[in-house]
Design goal:
191 residues, mainly alpha
């Protein structure tokens, strides 16, 4: 059963990765670069400031830092625990994919890009939901695009992506709830 799932995962990766072309490689390299999301994160922080104020923003920055640290470290625990070679390092796979990425890390299960982008999407979408009802859908779509970029550049299998996104969604909800508790406590202290 597991072997069949992994074989399906490998075949799906090969198919999806080979949909790419040199024409689009540059765009997907920009999308997959973590620094390319900085303008979006800055915009989200600005919207939080605009709608909720400076005190809220200052407190939320600590919650966001904790969320990113948590998501990143758990991702590393999984990668080091499962030790699943990335497709760009796996014999029987690397020969059939287009490796576009700048580098190929050692292990890939599960995707840090997918978990971090989905955590940010869910968290920010929930925080800003009272003011921008449809923003969460736009952010989740953005997260899917970032996640797909990891398949496009040849560094993750689809299962790495799906598991990363599920963990990211869990993290986003968890830290949204934590943020709600922190903000309520700060309101009590400030009154």
């Amino acid at each position: 059963m597991i072997e069949e799932l992994l074989e399906l995962d490998k075949n799906l990766l090969i198919y999806l990765n080979n949909l790419g072309s040199e024409t689009w490689d540059g765009l997907w390299l920009i999308i997959t670069n973590k620094l390319s999301s900085i303008p979006l994160y800055a915009l989200l922080l600005f919207l939080i400031y605009k709608k909720l104020g400076l005190k809220y923003l200052l407190a939320i920055v600590f919650v966001i830092a904790a969320m990113i640290t948590f998501t990143d470290q758990i991702t590393n625990v999984f990668k080091d625990g499962f030790m699943r070679a990335r497709p760009c390092r796996a014999e029987g796979v690397m020969e059939y994919i287009r490796f576009v990425a700048v580098r190929c890390g050692k292990y890939g299960f599960f995707s840090g890009h997918s978990s971090n982008s989905m955590a940010a999407a869910i968290f920010a979408g929930l925080v800003l939901r009272p003011y921008y009802k449809k923003l969460i859908f736009i952010l989740v779509l953005w997260s899917f695009i970032v996640a797909y970029s990891r398949i496009y550049v040849g560094v993750h299998y689809p299962i790495d992506i799906v598991c990363g996104m599920l963990f990211g969604a869990f993290s986003g909800v968890l830290f949204y709830k934590l943020n709600t508790i922190v903000q309520k406590r700060l309101q009590v202290i400030n009154t």
